[in-house]
Design goal:
It is a single chain. By secondary structure, the chain is an alpha/beta fold. Helices cover 25% and strands 24% of the residues. α1 runs antiparallel to α3 (125-133) and α7 runs antiparallel to α8.
């Protein structure tokens, strides 16, 4: 495709910085050729696709700042300093060849938004991956969000010598220094969070899957949102098939009044650690397709891929178009019927629990889980609470909980559940602890949608736990107190219950303006 000499690309809602040349919307095969020509640390795999070993192995939360001179409830950078960094980045771009990728976040709907990525040609794997996630532009396309990305320009003095500046007012994200694809993806989706909220909805950090009508008790298609922190099983749960379910997408969902849902992405950004064709056949097929892109996956000199090797990182990733796998078309989706909140716990949370209506917004705000390599070394392995399990919300997180509470009033039929994707009775190192496997979680989802679970009250937490679940033979996974009692650890269990109640109340009290009914356990 012909390169465009530029003095700043005009005719756009945001004028892009001038570059030595710009190639607009190159084809995948062109970007593949540039990756092979310009980029070190690239290997062709046994599957015929390319893997790039990035310097940066995860999203850089400590390097991310919102441009603001007032209270933003998020790490902020002043408008003056942001302008200085923008000037420095613009000057750098003037001497470099750039690629411009245009597309939509979301198919046709009231929450669809035009987005563009402007990035150095010498880092062509990132635009190639982003192109797989965008819906293609049409004649009416105009950009609402812009990500300007210069991996080759560091930001000395900032954490990791990298800087991600988020300017909500301008709709512009600037990335300096990082070569990790996730910063491109989130550059648009973080803005989309704000856009959806302005339209009266809530962008949930969630996968979305649809169950066909012939498999549901209602006889109608039913949609399930799977909320979870990156790396805790969100994509796995979304793409694992139960009762003929079909994935729509794996990372964000716009939840609107009445339970209407909209998908933002046309592809998948999957975590590849431990990827097994038996446990995760759909993700495996998409990842190993020749058109897929790999990042930070272990590949030896012969091109052999090892999804279990963590020498470089456990946060290996892939992108692939949804067109490459069986999936539900994002148009005309049914209303949300189920909300599954993933909690990667390792002690007293059961494999599955049904929340009362009054508990839904509370457990959403608690966002309890265990951090993974997706959040970097600062989060990996640590017990976390992240409201909505959404680290990309743009302001006071109390607004997430309050908005969900408002939306729930328009969704009387929504049911919500906790799914523990971790362990019961202690961590991996603990004697007698038990793992909640992928097959266990899949059985729980099938039981929820199929209506085959009998529920009983849990006296300690007030939610309902399963008396039994077809496909889960070990009742200790469903009733953790049984395991603790059988191992003469009942006092430990009681201490954990008391600690959880106290810590949860203290945590919810931290959010100014949070609705009292959410903060009340």
């Amino acid at each position: 495709m012909k390169a465009l000499a530029t003095q700043g690309l005009v005719g756009l809602s945001f004028e892009l910085p001038a570059a030595r040349s710009v190639v607009r919307n190159p084809a995948q095969e062109e970007m593949r050729s540039w990756v092979l020509e310009y980029m070190p640390r690239v290997q062709e795999t046994e599957f015929g696709n390319l893997n790039y070993t990035a310097r940066v192995t995860a999203r850089l939360a400590p390097s991310t700042f919102f441009v603001s001179d007032t209270e933003s409830f998020k790490p902020a950078i002043s408008t003056t300093e942001a302008a200085e960094w923008a000037t420095r980045q613009d000057a750098y771009i003037r001497d470099h060849d750039m690629l411009l990728i245009e597309g939509y976040i979301g198919p046709s709907s009231e929450v669809r938004a035009g987005a563009q990525l402007y990035i150095e040609k010498t880092q062509a794997n990132i635009p190639a991956m982003q192109q797989q996630l965008f819906f293609p532009p049409d004649a009416a396309w105009t950009p609402k969000f812009t990500t300007i990305y210069t991996p080759g320009l560091p930001a000395p003095g900032k954490p990791n010598d990298c800087l991600i500046m988020v300017d909500l007012q301008a709709g512009v994200t600037r990335v300096l220094g990082s070569d990790y694809f996730g910063e491109s993806k989130m550059g648009g989706l973080r803005m989309w969070n704000h856009h959806v909220f302005e339209q009266g909805g809530l962008a949930c950090h969630a996968g979305l899957k649809v169950f066909p009508g012939h498999q549901t008790p209602s006889g109608e298609e039913e949609a399930a949102l799977i909320i979870g922190l990156s790396g805790t099983g969100k994509t796995t749960t979304t793409f694992r098939q139960q009762l003929g379910s079909m994935p729509v997408q794996d990372d964000f969902v716009a939840l609107m009044p009445g339970g209407r849902v909209f998908s933002p992405e046309n592809g998948c950004f999957a975590k590849t650690f431990g990827l097994d064709p038996n446990d995760e056949p759909t993700i495996y097929y998409g990842t190993t397709h020749p058109s897929g892109w790999l990042e930070n996956v272990s590949v030896d000199s012969e091109g052999r891929v090892d999804f279990f090797d963590t020498t470089h990182t456990a946060n290996g990733r892939s992108t692939f178009p949804l067109a490459n796998i069986p999936h539900r078309d994002p148009a005309g989706l049914p209303q949300a019927r189920y909300l599954l909140i993933l909690n990667r716990n390792d002690n007293v949370v059961p494999a599955v629990a049904r929340l009362t209506r009054d508990q839904i917004a509370t457990y959403f705000m608690l966002g309890e889980t265990r951090g993974t390599s997706a959040g970097g070394a600062a989060e990996q392995g640590k017990n976390l609470r992240v409201p909505g399990t959404n680290p990309f919300f743009f302001t006071n997180d109390a607004l997430q909980g309050n908005r969900l509470l408002e939306l729930l009033q328009t969704m009387p039929d929504l049911q919500a559940f906790l799914l523990n994707t971790g362990r019961v009775g202690g961590g991996e190192e603990g004697d007698g602890s038990k793992n909640v496997s992928i097959s266990h979680s899949a059985a729980a989802v099938a039981g929820i949608v199929g209506g085959t679970i009998e529920w009983v009250l849990d006296p300690d937490f007030g939610y309902e736990v399963a008396a039994a679940v077809p496909g889960i033979d070990d009742l200790d996974l469903l009733h953790p107190v049984r395991l603790y009692e059988a191992q003469d650890r009942l006092e430990e269990y009681k201490t954990l219950v008391e600690r959880f109640q106290e810590e949860r109340s203290a945590y919810l009290a931290r959010f100014p303006g949070l609705a009292p009914s959410i903060a009340r356990l």
